[in-house]
């Protein structure tokens, strides 16, 4: 025959007891307080750095240099809602990836954590020329 203690249902704590227990448990955490960000820290700047890093994963398939270093990205803006707008061009209006490359860039940037919407505008002014490439791109392409 089971003893009387086993047959009793546990009594739920009162709201005050539950709140007191939660407060006590919160004081027992092993987490250190979040450090204050350094002076001048701007979270939008850090997010913009991650957006540029995502853009740098996109390559013109005919040139072994990313589109950022090629100078194909003319403008990257982000609003307060973390929506990103990008103006970019291609090396030529006849570029065989004209339909694919902007979407590749949009998907790469959309994959950045904390970015909401991404709008890509393909522009042709000013026309791209080799002088728009970074020094790094020129070195990679032996164009010195």
TrEMBL record:
Write the protein's name. Answer: FeS assembly SUF system protein
| Cross-referenced Pfam families | FeS_assembly_P (PF01883)
Q: Which domain of life is it from?
A: Bacteria
Write down the SUPFAM superfamilies for this protein, in alphabetical order: Fe-S cluster assembly (FSCA) domain-like
* Signal sequence extent: none
Q: Where is this region: Disordered?
A: 1-43
Q: Which residue stretches does the UniProt record annotate as biased composition, category Low complexity?
A: 14-24
- By its UniProt entry, which Gene3D superfamilies does this protein fall under? Fe-S cluster assembly (FSCA)
Task: List, for all copies, the residue spans of the domain called MIP18 family-like.
Answer: 49-119
